[in-house]
Request: fold
Amino acid sequence: MAPPIPVAAGAHPIALEPAMANRHGLVAGATGTGKTVTLRVLAEGFSRIGVPVFLADVKGDLAGIARPAAEGDAKLAERASKVGLADWEPEQFPVTFWEVGGGRGHPVRTTVSEMGPLLLARILDLNDIQAGVLQIAFKAADEAGLLLLDLKDLKAMLQYVAEHAKELQKEYGNVSAASVGAIQRALLRIEQEKGTALFGEPALDIGDLLRTRDGKGTVNVLVADELFRTPRTYATFLLWLLSELFETLPEVGDPEKPKLVFFFDEAHLLFSDAPDVLRERIEQVIRLVRSKGVGVWFVTQNPLDVPDSVLGQLGNRVQHALRAFTPRDQKAVRAAAETFRASPGLDVAEAITQLAVGEALVSFLDRSGTPAPVERALVYPPRSRLGPLSREEQEQLVRASPLAGTYDEPVDRESAYEQLKARAGQAADAHAEKAAAGGGIDLSGWGFGGGGGSPTGGAGARSRREGPMEAMAKSAARAVGSQLGREIMRGVMGSLFGGGRKR
Reply:
């Protein structure tokens, strides 16, 4: 059985039972009260007993976990002495750095298909109608056997949806040009915000987050200071990752220790303005993922940032100081106090406003799964280096990583963009042959149905789907004489026939 993880000291040492770590947890408190140090102490403790960890470094101060604390760090030594931690000594932990786009970590990617229309609509900030059109695009791609791997695939698919709106709406409902245009504009914004680097291959293999090294669990650090500048993308990406863990990992019940512990920093971003369907998805994943051996810990300033339906599932609590300056602050203090199991002689609501930096109210689940009475305690000092690494140190660790070279080079295999372009080329060749032979235009084989788009219906009522080349020709005819029309034609022709440079 894995040993308990020492976290803090009050009247006596307080430790977290590894078997209860997948019952999830909460680390809350105002800015500057010690949440990051608590997160680091927990991550070190899990790593020490062989449990991999995933956390996002939004401020750039968690990379130091890869190096031992300085021998002469007076603050850490003083805290160790104050809490009676006689065996404290500097220690480093195995770290794998990840980053969207790479550079300071291994590139982390997913595909458009893996992200799915629900989460992608969240990143793009689409309304319900626009999200419905996006779902139609995904459905049409599935039926046509088209892979949506990166953003250019999705843009090509949206173009197809726009050109075949009348046909698609017979089966899926209205597809307005305005909605397609809104999605395309949102994609342009995402591309400008480094979103292009998020989608593509090789996509992240979840198994690479579960590595151990020399008996210690790997601490997976997502370098997220730039990603965090687009909070919606940051939160949705972490939710996708958590969902992938749920979908990929097998059921393990209640293991002696977790397979992975996932820290969700700045958790309020996950729930802010989230539609009901997404909230339901979040609650379902949090409720069920513990059976996969995954513990989820939310790190946030205010307990009210987490919905009650989720807060009730977080059995382990570390509450740092809150300030009660406004009515909302006072409500947060009362709400936080009410979530703890009372302890004789301790006014929890009053204590929350009086806690010093590095001090917290702590309540962990005991071995039977019962919350222990809350205690006022000092969090132990971390054993790794406080603060960031130098750029050179971090690059050296990335180069020496067991995953070096696995994700570095993007792969652009044939997918929807290439397939649509190839079919357009075939249609153009057929058109040229027919014209040379004096025949008419026949694009009946260009449809996207499961049978290759062959005509359906009776002899007097045959119908077929309009191919992109035919639609383009009609659009061009309407745009003749317009400068804008000529510019659109150059863009369309470059897209369909490879006039643009492949990136």
